[in-house]
Design brief:
By secondary structure, the chain is an alpha/beta fold. The protein contains 5 helices and 7 strands. 31% of the residues lie in helices and 21% in strands. The mean pLDDT is 89.
Length: 170
């Protein structure tokens, strides 16, 4: 008589956290402010304001722009503020940095918003593979956010975990 196969992982107290579940689904597009530089060197306020006023920012509605400058030019802070204002008015959002940096910053923000009650006192497994490979900063933030609330924290797959933290009973 054959023994029944039991899925011990499914029957365990383990809560799996998949980073893909917190990934940003809105399209992210890079906007290079270098295209607005005079002779590739400086940003002139009058011309930049004219560009901001004339450009149809609604083409970015529902998107997130990753604002970058591909040259070594020093961009004044007011320029980023003008861009943010125009994009906000058009129903778009923006962050400074490359598309990858912005995607990770948004993921980290979402990690901080995780309902800690969902993981409080639980054994949590951070899944090791997914659609994208986050930087170490994501894992640092995730650990700092969850550790005070969980009973234990692990990394990997249910069949092969790396223990990270275990709360010592008091």
């Amino acid at each position: 008589m054959a023994e029944e196969i039991v899925n011990r992982v499914a029957n365990s107290e383990l809560v799996q956290l998949e980073l893909d579940d917190y990934a940003f689904e809105i399209p992210i597009k890079e906007y290079d402010i270098a295209q607005n530089l005079f002779e590739g060197l400086i940003l002139r306020e009058k011309e930049f304001r004219g560009f901001i006023d004339k450009f149809d920012w609604s083409v970015y509605r529902g998107m997130c722009l990753a604002i970058v400058c591909s040259t070594g030019a020093i961009i004044p802070n007011w320029a980023f503020m003008l861009l943010a204002s125009a994009l906000e008015s058009a129903g778009a959002s923006c962050h400074y940095g490359s598309e990858t940096e912005v995607r990770e910053r948004i993921l980290i923000d979402r990690i901080h918003e995780i309902a800690r009650e969902k993981f409080a006192g639980k054994k949590v497994l951070i899944k090791g593979c997914g659609k994208f490979e986050p930087s170490p900063e994501v894992y640092l933030s995730l650990t700092r956010t969850l550790q005070p609330h969980v009973r234990s924290l692990m990394f990997g797959e249910a069949c092969s975990t790396v223990p990270v933290f275990k709360k010592v009973p008091q």
